[in-house]
């Protein structure tokens, strides 16, 4: 019960981790099974932890140093600290990059911070600037903002062509995917429909990000969901279509009312990927679980215990088996 993410591991994996009581470094290969975004931790010579690396090699410094030796060999004890400090560190990076956005040009800013922070902060400013444009000058304001977004997109594409490293390129690729969607929303959902009221349904139905009460909140229609700060690394994002948007609305509405959702459709249409991408948008830990006829209530019970204890999402693939 100390570290609920252990519920998602098999007994063999759990034994392997718990047997490494003296040597924290040997837990590294198993981290991926407990934390989706963490590939390795940065240890110093005294085996203290100073930060985390994603699979892509992105580094996030920790807000405080963790000392596994002080846990006297209890792996679950220092892994709980890793989880706690991970959330605080991601929040700190988001907060710092939010303040930095106003000080730098966007193209320089977009290669100066971690990918996850850049995507979240750019969505917050998009929401804020769209609402400002609507309130101040209606449709002409939106048209101006649309042109500005087009220029921003061109600038970002120009940066991709310069000499940047693979990590920055991956961040910009994800940013471009979100920027294109943001631009299209303003054109097709607002300008073409002649909507310039922030309380209109066409705008409320979009996934909107706000910085309120020193926290990131994600709103869609009447739902207000908290951004969870789970570190997801520098991963690619799905290209968002009208169907993806509709799926997001339904799933967010269900979650807000404490229900679940069941996307249905032919094989290979992206049902699982859509759920995973929504989890990324809300920075939630999402576990994909492949169901089979060999499962019984004991295994499922253990899995649900873990989900309820750590507040993760789960996507049950092939549930009809």
From TrEMBL:
Principal subcellular localisation of the protein: other
Residue ranges occupied by any Dynein heavy chain linker domain in the UniProt entry: 2-96
Transmembrane segments annotated in the record for this chain: none
The keyword DNA repair is assigned to this record: no
GO cellular component: cell projection; dynein complex
Matching Gene3D superfamilies: 1.20.58.1120, Dynein heavy chain, N-terminal domain 2, P-loop containing nucleotide triphosphate hydrolases
A family per Pfam: DHC_N2
InterPro entries, per the entry: AAA_6 (IPR035699), DHC (IPR026983), Dynein_heavy_linker (IPR013602), Dynein_linker_3 (IPR042228), P-loop_NTPase (IPR027417)
GO BP term (any one): microtubule-based movement
Keywords associated with the record: Cell projection, Coiled coil, Cytoplasm, Cytoskeleton, Nucleotide-binding
Tree of life domain: Eukaryota
Domain Dynein heavy chain hydrolytic ATP-binding dynein motor region, chain residue ranges per copy: 227-321
Subcellular location as annotated: Cell projection; Cytoplasm, Cytoskeleton
GO molecular function, one term: dynein intermediate chain binding
Name of protein: Dynein heavy chain
Taxonomic source organism: Strombidium inclinatum
């Amino acid at each position: 019960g100390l570290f609920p993410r252990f519920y998602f591991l098999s007994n063999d994996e759990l034994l392997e981790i718990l047997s490494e009581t003296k040597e924290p470094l040997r837990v590294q290969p198993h981290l991926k099974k407990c934390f989706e975004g963490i590939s390795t931790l940065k240890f110093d010579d005294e085996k203290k932890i100073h930060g985390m690396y994603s699979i892509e090699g992105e580094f996030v410094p920790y807000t405080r140093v963790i000392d596994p030796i002080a846990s006297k060999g209890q792996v679950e004890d220092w892994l709980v600290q890793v989880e706690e400090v991970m959330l605080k560190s991601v929040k700190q990076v988001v907060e710092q990059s939010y303040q930095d956005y106003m000080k730098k040009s966007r193209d320089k800013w977009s290669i100066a911070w971690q990918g996850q922070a850049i995507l979240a902060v750019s969505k917050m400013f998009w929401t804020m600037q769209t609402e400002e444009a609507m309130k101040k000058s209606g449709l002409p304001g939106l048209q101006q903002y649309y042109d500005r977004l087009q220029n921003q997109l061109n600038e970002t594409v120009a940066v991709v062509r310069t000499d940047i490293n693979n990590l920055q390129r991956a961040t910009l690729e994800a940013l471009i995917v979100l920027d294109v969607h943001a631009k299209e929303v303003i054109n097709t959902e607002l300008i073409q429909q002649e909507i310039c009221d922030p309380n209109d349904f066409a705008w409320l139905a979009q996934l909107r990000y706000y910085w309120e009460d020193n926290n990131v909140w994600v709103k869609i229609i009447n739902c207000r969901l908290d951004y969870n700060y789970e570190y997801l690394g520098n991963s690619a994002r799905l290209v968002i279509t009208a169907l993806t948007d509709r799926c997001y609305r339904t799933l967010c509405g269900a979650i807000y009312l404490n229900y679940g959702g069941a996307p249905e459709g032919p094989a290979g249409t992206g049902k699982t990927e859509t759920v995973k991408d929504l989890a990324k948008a809300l920075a939630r830990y999402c576990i994909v679980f492949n169901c089979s006829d060999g499962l019984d209530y004991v295994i499922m019970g253990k899995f649900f215990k873990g989900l309820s204890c750590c507040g993760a999402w789960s996507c049950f693939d092939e549930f009809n088996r």
